[in-house]
Amino acid sequence: MQPTASIDTFNHILGSMVKHKLYLDVCLMHRKMNFVGIGPDLYTLNILINCCCHLNNLYCGFGVFGEILKRGFEPDSVTVGTLVKGMCMVGEVMNAVKLFDKMSEKGVEGEVFTYGILINGLCKSRETGLALELHRKMLKRNGKANVLTYSMIIESLCKGGLINEALEMFSDMKRVKIAPDVVVYSSLINGFCKLGRMMEAMNVFNEMADQGISANVITYNYLIHGFFQLDFCKEATKIFNHMLGQGISPNVVTFTILIDCLCKKGKIREAHELFELMIQLGKEPSIYTYNSLIYGLCMSGQLDEAEKVFKLIGDNGGEHNIITFNMLINGYCKHQMIENALWLFKEMHRKGLKPTTVTYNTLVGALFKIGRVRTAKKLFKEMQVCGLSPDLHSYSVIFAGLCKNGHIKEAIDLFESVKSIELESSIEIFSILIDGMCRAGNLGEARKQFDELSKKGLVPDVVAYNTMINGLCKNGMVSEGYELVLQMEEKGCSPDSISFNIIVRAFLKENEINKAMDIFGEMRKRNLLPDEGVTSMMLHLALVDEQWRLTLQSLPNICHSKTYSVPR
C-alpha cells in the first residue's frame, strides 16, 4: 500500500490550481480528499473559501467557514480577509464590515490587505465616511497604512465633491511619509476639475511634475475635460498638445472628450475631422464617441451625416444603445421628420431595445406639435401599458399638447384623474393649464387657478406670471395685465423682457402709445430689449409719428435686438 501524500503536498497542488483559476476543480478535489480520509487543515479550508467566493457562491463559503469552527480550527486573518473579499465582490459591503468588526472583537486582527478591500468596497458604495472611519481604526490598531488605502479614499472623496476632506487626507499621507503616486495626484486633479477650480488643478499637476511623477493619459483627460467644460478651449488644446509632446498617446476617452465638447460648442466640422483622425490612428470609437458625434450632427441639422454615423456603428460591429436611438429620434423630431422618427422607434423594438420615458416624451411632443393628437395620445397610453410611469416632463408634454390643440377639457380631466403630489406641486404644470384656459377664452377659471396657487403653497415664477399676463392681454384686459406686472415685482418676482414685451405689444395694439412708451422707457432702464415683433410695430409707428421716430433714434442697436420667445 502506497503512503498517502501529506496535507502540505495537497495544499501546494490546490494553491497551484487556484493560480490557474481552476476554482471548481479545487472544490471537487477537496471532496475526493474527504472521501479518501485526507483531512484538511486551516490552510486548505482558506483556499476552499477563496474558491467559493470566486465562484460567487458565498453561501458555500460560509459553509466552509462553519467547517473550520466545527473542526476546532481558529479562523485567522486570511480566513476573515477572504470572506470579506467575497462579500464585497457580491455587493455585501456593509455585512462584510459587520463580520470584520465581529472577528476583530474576538481577537482576529485584520491585515492591511483586508482593510484595503473594505475601504475600496465602502468607497465604491459611496460610503466614504465609513471608509474614513475604518482607515482611522486601521491606523490606531496596527499603525500601518499604504498608498493604496489613501488613494482609494482620496479618489472617493474627490468624486463626491469633498475636495477639502481629500486635501486633508493628502496632507496626512505626506505627514506619515507615504509618497503620493500618480493615482492620488490624478484624483485630486479630477476633484478640482469637477468643481471648475482649474487653477488649483494645474497647481497639483505642476506639483506632481516637481516630484518627478509623470502624468498619464487619465491625468491629461481630466484636465482637458475640465478646461472644455468651462469653455477654455485654448487651454484644453494646450494640455492636449503637451500630452502629445510628452509622448503620451491619446486614448478613446481623450478623443471622446474632445469630440463631445466640440459638438456641444457647435464645432461640428472640427469634431468630425477629429473622429476621422481617431479612426486613422487605429483607435476604435466607443458607443459614447459615436453618440457624441450623432448628438452634434442632429443639433446642427445634419441628419444625413448623423444617419451615416448611426449606420457606421453597425458596420463596425458595434451595438447601438438606447441613447443612440433617442438622440437620432430627437434629431428627426426637431426637424419635423416625424415619419423617420417613428420608423426608428419601430427599429428600436426590432433590435430588442426597450424605449425609455425620454423616447416617448420626444415622440409625443413632436406628434402634438404637428397636430397628430390621436397618435400622440395613443403613444402616451402605450408608454404606461409597457410599464413606464410618466414623469413630470411627460405630463408637461401631454398637457401642453392637448391645450395647444384645443383639447383643454381633456387636459384638465387628465390632471384631475392623476391627482399626483408631484403634479400638484409643479408650477410648470399649472402654468401650462392656465395657458390652455386662456387660449380657450376661459379667463375667469384661469385667473381663479392663478390666484389659488399661493393657497396650494406654490410661488408663481416669471413663466407663470407671463402666462397669466399674456392671457389677460390677449383677451383685451391690458390694464389688468399691467397691474399683474407691478404685483409680481412687489412679490419678489422680477419681470423679464418677455413680461414687458407682452405689455408693450398689447398697449401698441390698443393704440395706447403713451403708456407703451412709458413701459418701454422702464425696459430701457433695466437693459431689457424689445423682441422682433415689438420692434417691427415701433418702426411702423415711427413712420407716422415724429415722437416715436425721435425715440427710436435714441435707442442703441434696436434693429439688431435679440429675439425672445413670447407666448402668442
From TrEMBL:
<feature type="repeat" description="PPR">
    <location>
        <begin position="321"/>
        <end position="355"/>
    </location>
</feature>
<feature type="repeat" description="PPR">
    <location>
        <begin position="181"/>
        <end position="215"/>
    </location>
</feature>
<feature type="repeat" description="PPR">
    <location>
        <begin position="216"/>
        <end position="250"/>
    </location>
</feature>
<protein>
    <submittedName>
        <fullName>Pentatricopeptide repeat-containing protein</fullName>
    </submittedName>
</protein>
<feature type="repeat" description="PPR">
    <location>
        <begin position="286"/>
        <end position="320"/>
    </location>
</feature>
<feature type="repeat" description="PPR">
    <location>
        <begin position="356"/>
        <end position="390"/>
    </location>
</feature>
<feature type="repeat" description="PPR">
    <location>
        <begin position="391"/>
        <end position="425"/>
    </location>
</feature>
<feature type="repeat" description="PPR">
    <location>
        <begin position="111"/>
        <end position="145"/>
    </location>
</feature>
<feature type="repeat" description="PPR">
    <location>
        <begin position="146"/>
        <end position="180"/>
    </location>
</feature>
<dbReference type="Pfam" id="PF01535">
    <property type="entry name" value="PPR"/>
</dbReference>
<dbReference type="Pfam" id="PF12854">
    <property type="entry name" value="PPR_1"/>
</dbReference>
<dbReference type="Pfam" id="PF13041">
    <property type="entry name" value="PPR_2"/>
</dbReference>
<dbReference type="InterPro" id="IPR011990">
    <property type="entry name" value="TPR-like_helical_dom_sf"/>
</dbReference>
<feature type="repeat" description="PPR">
    <location>
        <begin position="76"/>
        <end position="110"/>
    </location>
</feature>
<dbReference type="InterPro" id="IPR002885">
    <property type="entry name" value="PPR_rpt"/>
</dbReference>
<feature type="repeat" description="PPR">
    <location>
        <begin position="461"/>
        <end position="495"/>
    </location>
</feature>
<keyword id="KW-0677">Repeat</keyword>
<comment type="similarity">
    <text>Belongs to the PPR family. P subfamily.</text>
</comment>
<feature type="repeat" description="PPR">
    <location>
        <begin position="426"/>
        <end position="460"/>
    </location>
</feature>
<feature type="repeat" description="PPR">
    <location>
        <begin position="251"/>
        <end position="285"/>
    </location>
</feature>
<feature type="repeat" description="PPR">
    <location>
        <begin position="496"/>
        <end position="530"/>
    </location>
</feature>
<feature type="repeat" description="PPR">
    <location>
        <begin position="41"/>
        <end position="75"/>
    </location>
</feature>
